[in-house]
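Tutorial, part two.
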Amino acid sequence: MEANKTVIFTRPHKTIYAAENQIIKVFDRQYKKSDVLNEARNEALVEESTDLNIPSLVSVSDTAEGWCLVRDKVEGVTLAELMDKEPEKLGEYMEKFVDLQLSVHSQNVPTIKRLRHKLMDQINSLKDIDATARYELATRLQSMPKHHKLCHGDFNPTNVIVDAEGKLWIIDWAHAAQGNASADAAMTYLLFALEDQKKADLYMKLFCEKTDTARQYVNRWLPIVAAAQLTKKKEQEKDFLMRWIDVVEYE
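Running the prediction step on this input gives:
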């Protein structure tokens, strides 16, 4: 790992550094090796199988600090920063954001994990809700249409970098899977709603218009993806997510 590096930001169990030409993501010893390797595999599969702009994965290694992923550095600003800096252009930036997500959904990566399996595992592992709620969520998931579109799983403007030429790059494929695009959209809506309901509503409006999808259909995914997000154990999100899970209809 390069000696001359600076911390960009830290998250629980991981630290992201910037070096001259690389971004270095280091996971602490509490982070499972299998999860690190799965993230690397996802990025390699997306890079090999699609025409999306993603920073190239350079190496995966075990270091004194912990397992680390090294990627090529893309110079630019995130779409989130642009949305905040130029609120008068929010509509324009959100259009680009939704169009980019639709380009992700148009891709096919047949060897990546199935989103349905990932969501089912997350629901079954969740102990913050009782067995009856878990059963209802699992039943709803089983009833939803089965698709095989590439889903990012954490698609939000902080994971989109705009370079000097205006090209859009997508980062952080740790939660990628193949499945139903409306499930991916429901997760994006929740991530917006956790921060800014106005942006969440604009996002949902544009996604439904551009895909000719009924909002009610995307809404049916919300309790499922809220349960998935709850497994990340972010205490500040718990009450908000539990409210979405509570809208499950008990029949």
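The chain has a mean pLDDT of 93. In part three we will examine how such features are distributed along the chain.
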